[in-house]
Amino acid sequence: MKNVYFIGIGGIGMSALARYFKFRGLEVSGYDKTPSDLTAALEREGISVHYEDRPDLVPANVEETLVIWTPAIHELGELDFVREKGYRLIKRSRALGEVARGQRCLAVAGTHGKTTTSTLTAHIFTESGEGCTAFLGGISRNYGTNLLMSRNDVVVAEADEFDRSFHQLFPEIAVITAIDADHLDIYGDYAHVLESFRVFASQVSGTLILKEGLPVTSADTKANLLTYHYTSRTADFHPENARPDPLGHFIYDLHYPGGVLRDIRVGAPGWVNAENSIAAAAIALTFGLDPEAVKHAIGTFQGVKRRLEVHVNTPKVSYVDDYAHHPAELASAISSLRDIFPGRKITAIFQPHLYTRTRDFAPDFAKALSAVDKLILLPIYPAREEPIPGVTSDIILSAATAPEKVLIPKEELMDYLEKEPVDVLVTFGAGNIDRFVEPITQLLSARS
User: I want to staple 122 with a disulfide (CB 3.0 to 4.6 A). Which of 129, 134, 193, 287 is the partner?
Assistant: First the structure.
């Protein structure tokens, strides 16, 4: 194999694999629908990316070319072409599974929390000197990338439940952070989501670390079962004496099967990052890393781009951006923001992601978003979906009970914010709301 061609190369998981194969000395190129910061970074790294459906740009040598595609893309001339010509065509999840096979895989699964937890796990292994190769679902702020490389045989992977991708992984140690109803366009109902996580649990060979209370038991896995939790003292890994410092960074004493690790300070603010740090520490300590090295690494963790990422922070005005696009994620993020910015007025801009998710969870979205002081809703970002009659952002707006609420077209957002007094502003969503991060940062920086 000389060439690896990616259909959907700009996705966060796809781009990590593209970087991996480029690092391994292969010729890497690919297609994506639209340019982005990620595709621009890939191009700077010497990976050819194009944005038109061009089968003629697929490497011509069928026998020497592997084609990797994302199931987020359904119809494309290039996809039809490689199938017709007999290229070896595999999904992203299969490619990740093949890379991880035969190595010591440490995986983080869960309907929320997995990106930060896996990124922090990779940081602990890197900072401690153990090292790891890591495929991450976000851009690490410590390293500016979603791929870390190492010469050892440790692979840290985010185990994605979308399209049952995580069934391609067979970890030595794994964490499950949450099992919520999500991706119901794929699964249909919660029972099938749970069944899928139980299949993943059955594939763990060494230790499975569950958030305490999740409906997975020893009957579902041959692995040793351990638990973690942020508030329960019965979990195998739990904090005591947890308290925020003046900047919202939590400090706690970690109780774990080997003893107590005192005064851990989490480098990223908010209680939700403290909870994720316990899960990451559980992986590292179970693996056998030095406890003091684990403590030090948690303290130097800067977080993940678009996960409670602070862009402006002054007493006059603050701005945070977050990827949350599920009601449980929104509730955790808003609760954390209340810790970080006590007593301040929080204005949230939310762009719903997918018509099906909006339809399935509209009441839950409304409940979570009602915890802010002002809600600014944008229209639904469709991604891979066609509109569903009657499903719009209005069904969230009408049920939300935030003291102030408004729905505006995204084209009018910046003009609206120009005239809007802001104390703490947060943008939420997994669509293209990230395109507003830079202009909002510039606008609010000028005010501060």
Answer: 134
